[in-house]
Structures are given as structure tokens and as C-alpha cells.
Write a structure and sequence with these properties.
With 266 residues, this protein is an alpha/beta fold. It has ten helices and seven strands.
Length: 266
């Protein structure tokens, strides 16, 4: 009988299973067997496996009742409700990022430095703001927030829920896919941030104090869209100086406003 033809080496008879043979190098690395370096010459060239970082799953159902059409419907039913827009600004790949929040009624922008760009880091910023401002003030500032479909915003339930007994603190809505123009206020103001933080610039050496300094300058700039009034002045008129101070932003004299990388270069 021709066994080679009947049972070729790359196939097994029906019902048979091939048992994987563990690598000797694997046993040696954990101390189950004793070997000398010359016994396994290839093992010294093998790099240890890198463990995957924890994955933050995206909730595929997060946009139910939170689409842009739902946002437009809610706005028609609540025309006096202020709207904020939210986005991320990236530094180096895998490095620190910014969470940006824009007040559409006055043009003021906030930004918060995060070590990683996942959903928990955004939730942490929301919780920090609520603790610092109180739930009542948080609701006053952020009754409605429009954002994009980034995975860092994929847990709207946690973003909307207060630390106090899970009460609702805001409403989250999403732009349509590939429609960043639907949150044009925050996108346009990113151009001002990029004057200080050009693309490709790492955020690793920055602190929140650096970001607040940059925001003070950006928000103190007179803008034509606001009738040549700084956004920071309009914010004070609507919400008061106390809240502004709690956010760590202050008015910069017009002649001292600087939107250049030298502002926070170290």
C-alpha cells in the first residue's frame, strides 16, 4: 500500500486530530525544563509577546435616540436650551490627547488633557467637572452636547449620568457619520488651537496649566463672528466670573494675546 498517496503528510484521516507540539523555548522561559543557551540558539532572538492593552468596547447601540435627526428634533422642542459641541484633538499617536468642549452661545472653548483616548478618560473629565462645579452648574452649562462618532464618546449613558444617584446631567447626541461640519463651531475653533499646538506636536510635556494658559489666550481674542468681543467676556456675562475662575481661564489684555507655539513651548 502506498501510504504517501493514501495518507499525505498535510492531511489526516477522518476523525484524527493533530496535537500541537509546544515550543521547548516556552518551557525553558518559565523554568519547567533546564537548558543551556546553545541548546536553543533561536530562542535568544525571539522577542517576548506583548500583552494587549485593555480594549474599550464601542457600544453599537449608543446612537439609538441620539442621532442628528433626534438632535434637531430636540432643538425644535427646546429652542432656549444652550448647545455645546465636543471633540478630540490628537497629539502623537498613542499619546496624550485633548477633549475640547465649545459653548455655541458665546464661543468659549474648554480643553482637558487626557493620557489616553478612550471612553473612560472622557467620563473622568465629566465627573471631575461635576465635582468641581456641582450638578446644578453642570446642568446649566452642558444641557445638550453634540459630538462625533469617535469610540471615546461611545458610552453616552455614563456621560449623561450624574455621580449623584445616577440623575441625568446632560443629553448626548451624535453627528451623522463623516459629517464633522454638523459641529462646525468646535471644528473652526480648533484652527486657533492649532496655531499654538501645530499638528505633529506631542502633548507629552504639557500639563493642564499649560492648556488653561492657551485657552485664556484663545478665548481672549476678539473675533468678528462675536462682533469683535472676546468669547471670555460673553461667557462672563451669561454665567458669571465665579464659574470662569473654577474652569481655570482668565481674561488676557488684547495687546498680550499670543497664538504662537512659543506661548507654551518648554
Amino acid at each position: 500500500m502506498n501510504y504517501t498517496k493514501e495518507y499525505p503528510c498535510n492531511k489526516l484521516p477522518v476523525g484524527w486530530e493533530r496535537t500541537p507540539v509546544p515550543s521547548p523555548a516556552k518551557y525553558g522561559s518559565v523554568g519547567l525544563i533546564r537548558t543551556k543557551r546553545r541548546d536553543m540558539p533561536r530562542s535568544c532572538n525571539m522577542k517576548p509577546r506583548q500583552r494587549k492593552s485593555p480594549e474599550h468596547k464601542v457600544d453599537s447601540k449608543c446612537q439609538i435616540n441620539r442621532t442628528h435627526d433626534d438632535f434637531m428634533k430636540y432643538g425644535a422642542e427646546h429652542p432656549d436650551s444652550p448647545v455645546g459641541e465636543m471633540d478630540s484633538v490628537l497629539g502623537d499617536v498613542g499619546g496624550k490627547v485633548l477633549l475640547t468642549m465649545q459653548f455655541n452661545n458665546c464661543g468659549l472653548m474648554l480643553a482637558f488633557l487626557r493620557n489616553t483616548n478612550h471612553s473612560q478618560s472622557v467620563i473622568d473629565v465629566f465627573n471631575l467637572l461635576e465635582k468641581r462645579l456641582t450638578l446644578a452648574v453642570f446642568r446649566k452649562l452642558f444641557p445638550v452636547i453634540l459630538t462625533d462618532n469617535g469610540s471615546e464618546f461611545s458610552n453616552p449613558t455614563a456621560l449623561e449620568s450624574s455621580l449623584i444617584a445616577g440623575a441625568q446631567r446632560t443629553r448626548i447626541f451624535y453627528c451623522n457619520p463623516y459629517s464633522s461640519w454638523q459641529k462646525g463651531h468646535v471644528e473652526n475653533n480648533h484652527l486657533n488651537l492649532r496655531k499654538v499646538l501645530p499638528k505633529g506636536r506631542s502633548f507629552e510635556d504639557l500639563t493642564q496649566a499649560d492648556i488653561n494658559l492657551m485657552l485664556s489666550h484663545v478665548n481672549s481674542m476678539a473675533r468678528k463672528s462675536l462682533n469683535d468681543v472676546p468669547a471670555i467676556t460673553l461667557f462672563e456675562t451669561i454665567y458669571g466670573k465665579k464659574i470662569l475662575a473654577q474652569l481655570g481661564i482668565e481674561l488676557i489684555p488684547p495687546n498680550n494675546v499670543c497664538l504662537l507655539p512659543d506661548l507654551i513651548n518648554k
